[in-house]
Design goal:
cell membrane; alpha/beta; two-stranded parallel sheet; transmembrane; transmembrane transporter activity; transport
């Protein structure tokens, strides 16, 4: 009866990798769905001030952002260290704000235009003079819904 026995020990069968592509694609799909892409590259340093009374914006698609702060190190050689205004991905002057608001308003649907919000993301060390100038330009372009971004205290 020994002719059915093999000499030596049995080897373990190799691990099946048939389901490995399914797992990889499932992880890839999860990260593609849950990751948000940054829309604007920051060119200014923004340390948001702390606040106690905060409210969350309902529809972020209706928000246009204006960034104000010191230029980052790679831009300081060209633009200096004084606080600058950033609209989308470029530096701008106070006079450019009206054109920016009009372009943002035209990009929206007709029904959404009255609900458009302009959010100011201003560094906590920035002087209020530039913020007042921005607010005056926003008034001239009839952008009266203004939000100040801050972080929780």
């Amino acid at each position: 009866m020994s002719k059915f026995r093999k000499k030596g020990e049995k080897e373990l069968p190799p691990i099946s990798t048939a389901s490995l592509p399914d797992i990889v694609f499932m992880l890839l799909f999860f990260f593609m769905v849950s990751t948000t892409m940054r829309e604007v590259t920051y060119m200014v340093h923004i340390g948001l001030p702390k606040a106690t009374e905060l409210s969350k914006l309902e529809k972020k698609s209706l928000v246009s952002y204006i960034y104000v702060g010191e230029p980052l190190l790679q831009y300081q050689k060209t633009f200096g260290v004084a606080p600058r205004i950033q609209l989308n991905d470029q530096f701008a002057n106070v006079a450019d704000i009206q054109d920016y608001v009009i372009a943002e308003r035209e990009a929206r649907n007709e029904a959404e235009r009255p609900m458009m919000i302009t959010s100011l993301k201003v560094d906590e060390n920035t002087k209020m003079g530039i913020v007042s100038d921005i607010k005056q330009e926003l008034r001239k372009s009839a952008a009266l819904h203004i939000n100040y971004s801050s972080r929780k205290k």
